[in-house]
Amino acid sequence: MALLQIENVTRRYGALAAVEDVSFSVEAGEFFTLLGPSGCGKTTLLRMIAGFEAPDAGRILLDGIDLAGTPAERRPVHTVFQSYALFPHMTVAENIAFRLKMAGKEPQTVKVGVKEALAEVHLEDKADCFPHELSGGQKQRVALARGLVNRPRLLLLDEPLGALDAKLRQEMQIELIKLQKNVGVTFVFVTHAQQEALALSHRIAVMREGHIEQMAEPAKLYSFPHNRFVADFIGHINLFEVIVKEATTGHLRLTASGLGEIIAPPPDGVKAGESGWFAIRPEQVCIGQRHDVELKNRFTGTVCDYLYIGDVTTYKVELENGTLIEALMANSEPGRARFFEVGDEVTVAWRHDAGHFLDE
Amino acid sequence: MDKGVRLLKWLTGGPPFLFLLAFFVAPSLIMIVASFRFPGEYGGLAPLIADGKANLTLETYRFFFSDFIYTQVFIKSFVMALATTLICLIMAYPVALLIARSSKKFRDLMVLLVVLPFASNFLIRVYAWMIILGPQAAFSRMINGALGLFGFEPVALLFSPFAVLVGMVYVHLPFMVLPLYTNLEKHDPVLLDAAQDLGANAWQRFWRVTWPLSLPGVYSGAALVFIPVLGMFAIPDILGGTGDILIGNLIKDQLLGTRDWPFGSTLSIMLTLVVLACAGLAMWVSRRRSYA
Q1: Beta strand pairing status for A275-280 and A356-358?
Q2: What residue ranges do the domains of chain A occupy?
Q3: B290 at the A interface (CB within 8 A)?
Q4: Domain A236-358 class?
Q5: Where are the beta strands (DSSP E) in chain A?
Q6: How far are the Cα atoms of A20, A159, A199, A228, B98 from residue A193, in angstroms, in the given order?
Q7: CATH topology match: A4-231 vs A236-358
Q8: Chain B, nearest residue to A147 by Cα
């Protein structure tokens, strides 16, 4: 049986449904992420699991037991808040001890528990500091230690890395994975940062407007998005409006207005005449001089813009008919600073089995 | 520091500094000197220098400590101030909490309602209590009727320590509500969510999060109530009986009634000392565990 089961949960604010008929389950030990833009209902869902809000319909079960009627203070579920919510009038040790004291633990047990929790997040020397004396990353660690000290069945994390700068964020991501592995507590993580979700999670549920659009492992989500929204939200992608001209078991022949003919891998059940979208990741698009490419989907154009970020360069290429396409190129060839300049004539191409046809 | 900034600092800080110097420090010094002088024959003060010698005495201080009745009045005033502060705190806290936790739309309106009594004259409001507590008022009749049912003698509510306490609490309540509200309004509600999330029930959330975080507001509210009550003379004058005089009445009587200025000054200095001692103690208590 799954540790956490969300069954047809709906939450409305007036006429607006923040979460609508959402179902999924989380296994014990899993790092599960709810990913979506702001206002997609992910935080509302988290607050319902924590017990701060009640669903209007549906059930939330933990270890098979319905949580309805169990107030937040009695759920074996803790939350790491986006703003950390550390108690400003308590020291780091007192903040962490709070949960143990509320659970009625003996002073000696509290002391030992706090010490272990501090060691877990490498903050042994900050026990007597007040929160305002800590850096953002340290506050983050205290919030984690406080949430984990009593080993909840489930730890909910509401955009916990949102307030950290990029470098610290990456360090905390690595540490978060380690910590979750070490303590073995199930994590339900909420974020709008798709890279963070891909880096951390065992499984991701992509949410939009109160619904789950797709739920899969990170690699699957990135490589095989179910629809246009997921394809566009996770990473960068080129999208072209297309009509299916021919559908066989081997390939799909598409025509894109303003692009021409595209050969694509065939998904199940697509018939000729259907319209939809062709999506291809920039890193699957090869870019080169006119003559050196031998691929089926091939178009010529001129470089109109590029974004150089060191390891890779993203080129924006304007095709002869005005369509824009992005191609990613690794700057791996030694001895050359850059490959193409704005105005260069180039060929962009991709394999016949790259990209996806999406019908919505 | 930049020269211009320093000049600006003096220009902005100067006038209030001079004001306090002229209207607080200087009068205090005059009072201190007056307390060591002899009273004049028809009130006021005897000359400071007589026969080429300083004409000073410790007589007023000896008199103050020789008669226990003065210390008694101080103790009574102290107890009255303490009781007023406690009652104000207990009454004001829920009000302040209610205002701080209601929607922004209603907050300003409720704050306005709290300060609205200031729009009418202080004496008129205190006289109103004379009518409310008077023997003919519905309130008194109800109380005495109830007492009669249980076989007790009727009581006079007006001109009693009770009436003084009611007046004191009534007048000073807004001074407790406002600093408390200002403090409580700044509390981050997510802290209460966090406390609940970590297993604290409503009672524990209040005593472990809201209350300790509100202590600065409690201290300033207590100071704003305690200190004026300690020196108040108008309310005991109007609502109290002949035996209900406090330090304020004593000082007023010495300076305006008996016209014994040296003794009035002595009482006044003793009051200032008590207030300073209380303020120092409060500061020490509140600083012992500071986190901000």
Answers
A1: antiparallel
A2: 4-231, 236-358
A3: no
A4: mainly beta
A5: 4-13, 16-26, 31-35, 57-62, 65-66, 77-80, 154-158, 186-191, 203-208, 211-216, 238-247, 252-256, 260-264, 275-280, 286-288, 297-308, 312-319, 324-330, 345-350, 356-358
A6: 22, 9, 10, 18, 38
A7: no
A8: B198
- Rounded CA separation A222/A194 (Å): 10
Find chain A residues with C-beta within 8 A of B201's C-beta.
Answer: 73
Please give, rounded to a whole number of angstroms, the shortest distance from the CA of B106 to a CA of chain A.
21
Q: Do A79 and B292 touch (CB under 8 A)?
A: no
Residue identified by tokens 């990473």 is A235
Suggest the residue from A70, A83, A87 to mutate for an interface test with chain B (most B CBs closer than 10 A). Answer: A87
pLDDT tens digit sequence for B174-207? 999 999 999 999 999 999 999 999 999 999 999 9
For each of the domains in chain B, give its residue range(s) and CATH number, in order of start: 67-259 (1.10.3720.10)
The β-bridge relationship of strands A31-35 and A203-208 is parallel
Considering only CB atoms, which chain B residues are within 8 Å of A72? Answer: 193, 196-197
> The complex's ipTM?
0.84
Chain B touched by A85 (CB under 8 Å): yes
Best mutation target, B183, B188, B192, B198, to test chain A (most A CBs within 10 A): B198
CB A64 within 8 A of CB A41: no
How far apart, in whole angstroms, are the C-alpha atoms of residue A40 and residue A236?
20
In CATH terms, the fold of domain A4-231 is Rossmann fold (3.40.50)
| Cβ neighbours for A98, distance < 8 A, ≥ 6 positions apart | A87, A90, A146, B195, B198, B200, B208
CB within 8 Å of B155: residues ≥ 6 apart: B143, B144, B147
- State pLDDT tens for residues A194-234: 999 999 999 999 999 999 999 999 999 999 998 999 999 99
Whether A85 and B188 lie within 8 Å, measured CB to CB: yes
DSSP character at residue B43: B
In which residue ranges of chain A is pLDDT below 50?
none
